[in-house]
Every structure is written in C-alpha cells, then in structure tokens.
Amino acid sequence: MSGGKWVDPAPFEGARPRVPWWVLVPGRAKWIAALVALVWLAVVLAVRLVLVVVRYPVVVLVPVSAAWCWWRFGLSPLVLALLSLVAALIIWSGLDRTSFLRHCWYRLVTEWRRATVYVPRWRTVMRLADLTKLDRRKEYRPTLRRVRSEGWRDRVRVRMVPAQSPEVWELRRDGLAHSFHARSCRVRVLRPRVIELDFIHRDPLARPLPVSVLADAEVDLKRVTVGRTETGKPWRLRLLGSQLLVVGVPGAGKGSVLWSIVWQLAPAIRAGLVRLVGIDPKGGMELGQCPDAFDRVVYDNGPEAVALLEEIAAEVKERATRYRGVRRLWVRSSGEPFTVLVVDELADLIAYQPDKQLRERAARAIQTITSQGRAPGYAVVGLVQDPRKEVVSFRHLFTTRVALRLDEPQQVDMVLGDGVRQRGAAAHEISENTPGVAWIKQDGQREPERARAFHVTDADLVELGAFLADATVHDFPTRPDGTEGRNAA
Ligand SMILES: Nc1ncnc2c1ncn2[C@@H]1O[C@H](COP(=O)(O)OP(=O)(O)OP(=O)(O)O)[C@@H](O)[C@H]1O
C-alpha cells in the first residue's frame, strides 16, 4: 500500500517444484494400491505356476515328490521308491503297451517337445513366418496353447491373433513343418480363433493291413469296417442310407476299398441279406476276380450294362413306392435283400461311352438310384480313375467320398468338395508306396479322415470266392487202378 493505493509486488519467478503424481496421492490410498498390486502379482505368479504344473506335470511333480520323499524318509527309501516305479513302468509296458504309450510315454514326449521345440522357437518362427501383427508399437503374437504328442504326430493348439484367418496358416504349412522339424503340417479349425496344427513325424499307415478272418458274423450295414484310420480306429463305412464314391489314379488301391467292403459283407451275402450287382466296363479285370460274390454282373459299358442300370432304377422306384408311408429306411425285416451296385469305372458309363443315347440313359439311371435308393435299401459304390467334370457333377449324390491317391490338388477339391483340402485332406500328397491310403469325407462330418483299406490279396479273393460259392459235392479222386482213395471212406 502506498498512499492508500495498492502496489502489485513483483511476480514470483521461481520454478514450481515438479513432484511425481503419486506423492500427491494420500498415504492410505497408496497402501491400498500397493496391496492390490501385490495381490495381483501373487495371482499372476500362482496362475503361471499352475500352468507350468499343468503343462509339465511329470517334469515338475516327479522331482518335487522325490525331493519331499528324501527330506521326509531319507535316501534309501527314495532309491527303493524310484526302483519300484521303474519296475512298475516296465511291467505296465509289457502288459499293455498301448495304454503305457498313451498315458505315460507320450506324456513325457509331449513335455519334452513342448519344452525343447515349440516354446523356444515359437516367437521367432511366428515373426519370420509373418504370423505376428504390429499395431501402435504393440506386437500381437499367436499364442501357443496345448501341445499333445501322439508319437507319429504332435497336435499343437494355437490362438490366432485378431483378424487372422486359418487360410493364412494354410499358406505357411510347409514352412511351419520345416521350422518345427516335422515332415508335414495340417491345419484344422477347432472353434473361432482357435486352430490346431498337426505336425506329422511319420505315417502310421505305412504298413499294409491284412484282412480279418472270414467267418459267419453279424454285419452292420451302418458300420462296415474296411480298414483303419491313422488314429488307430477302425475305418467304418456306412452303406445303409448312403452312397459311396471312390476316386483314385490307376494303382491307388480302389480295388482294395471295393474288396474290403465285399469281404466284410460276405457273411450277409452268403445269408442272402445283401445282394451285389456289378458292372465292370473293363471287361471283368476287377469284378471278374471274384464273380461268386455277385448276384448279377456285366463286363461291359454297352447296352447290357445300361439295361441293368435301368432295371435297378425301376426296382428302386417300385420299392420306394411300396415303402412310402411305411418305412423311411430299409430294414432287415422287410424281407428284401439290401442291394449294393458296384460300378468299377463310372466314367466309362457316363463320360467315355461314345453313344450319346446310352450315355444319357446310364446317367439318368445312376441319378435315380443314388438319389432315391437310400430308403428302399440300394447303395451305389462307384469307382472312378479320373475325376473329370462329367463324373464330378454327380459328386453331390454320393454322401461318402473317398479320395485315394490323386495327381493334382484341384482333383482333391473336385472329389471331396471345396475347403476340404484346406482342412488337411491332401490326397495329392499320398505316396505311391502306400496304395489303399485315402482321405474320406462323409456328409455331415466336418473333418475329413485319413485311413487305409485292408489289403485283399489274390489268395484272399480265392478264399472269398470259396466262402461265397454254393456248396458243391466233389467226387473223391480214384486211383488209376480203379480203387478208391484213402479218404473215400
Ligand atoms: N490297401 C492296400 N494295401 C497294400 N497294398 C495295396 C492295397 N491296395 C492295393 N494295393 C496294391 O497296389 C496295387 C494296385 O492296387 P489296385 O489294383 O487295387 O489299384 P486300382 O486303383 O484298383 O488300380 P486300377 O485303377 O488300375 O484298377 C496292387 O499291387 C495291390 O496289391
């Protein structure tokens, strides 16, 4: 104040002290925040620990138990316990090798491969394969989830990064296989954002499978076992209510699929429950190997074959009319045999036949049998070498499609349908050394299956013929001097 007037003092020019924000937070709030952070850290650590125990149970629990045993009882009981454990494992593997491998050995392999192959290389491989995404300096990386080793393959579950599609992984299958030391890699979609990579180490179907002993047994037409799948389960084909298309290049093993079916149906054929009708345009090269199996067979693709097809188509229509409103699917008690029509080279009838009229009549008849034969008990087993357009246009009529070895990836799409090859069904990669190996796609089943048909040898076909031939009484041979042989009595 000067003479009653206010004089503004000089403004304060010192720098305002800069203190971190948390200094301004009241002391109590700081304690609460620190406590929350500590609890959070403890929870994260506990979850991580649980994950380690879940992912590496053997590696974690065995040493921990051993350490506890040593501390509690001393060294000698520990050595005794370990020796007993080893002895128990040896006995287990001797008594039941399959369950030992599944529940013990493959568990160890799983942990070993996770720790030595997948975890150490995951980040680098993902980056180099361009499977990571960078957004605002944050890296999004696919997460390695569950790993399961089954000896011949490792199943690796992955959570994809947002906005990534399985096709991106499809394109990198080869690179991923090499990176993780596998022979090949398949990609399967499990659910949104989660895929499973199958890293294949060896082919479990490398060895031919012999057929089972031929004996009178009950035949289930919904589950005809014709081989084994790569997971070790029986390969079962549904014939009742289904139509089957088998495609493969020459020598791919179409014959083995066909004869495996006939082999399994043999008891029912002998009992008259199942009737086989065949058309072999190759002059009997295939079906002529066991004509006894067939009720009727035509070795031609001309008028006789077409007449047979039309006859069966008429039967289908007639039976369908009778069954209408009575039953929806053929049953044994109908008193009429279940009919299986085998066409060895379908393309010969509906594509290569030079006579246009015959070709069209054959196509019409096949269409009728496949589309209407389900309920009246008619199944078609169509074998094809060359999946050309004319044949593939029939594809949708066949509910089960079997792709044996094929030449080109496009052919796989033509036979199995779009998108099935992307789910791993690489029929064009089947080795020439494994005839009878096939990829199977059944309608209503999302995932294709890989399997191998039984190997039906020429000797087996002779046995099959003898099993199905009508019993004939043969004269006992007589000796040249006219006396009867020893067995004649
Ligand atoms: N499941 C199988 N296991 C082992 N070997 C097989 C199997 N199937 C077929 N083979 C062998 O592969 C060869 C070719 O088989 P097959 O004649 O059945 O092929 P295909 O596809 O019918 O040929 P084509 O179209 O020329 O008739 C044969 O020597 C056969 O012994």
From TrEMBL:
Pfam families: FtsK_SpoIIIE. Residues 232-413 form the FtsK domain. ATP binds at residues 248-255. Coiled coil: none annotated. GO terms for biological process: cell division. GO terms for molecular function: ATP binding; DNA binding. Keywords: ATP-binding, Cell cycle, Cell division, Membrane, Nucleotide-binding, Transmembrane, Transmembrane helix. The chain crosses the membrane at residues 31-58, 70-92. It comes from the Bacteria. PROSITE patterns: FTSK (PS50901). The keyword Signal does not apply. SUPFAM superfamilies: P-loop containing nucleoside triphosphate hydrolases. This is Cell division protein FtsK. It comes from Saccharothrix syringae.
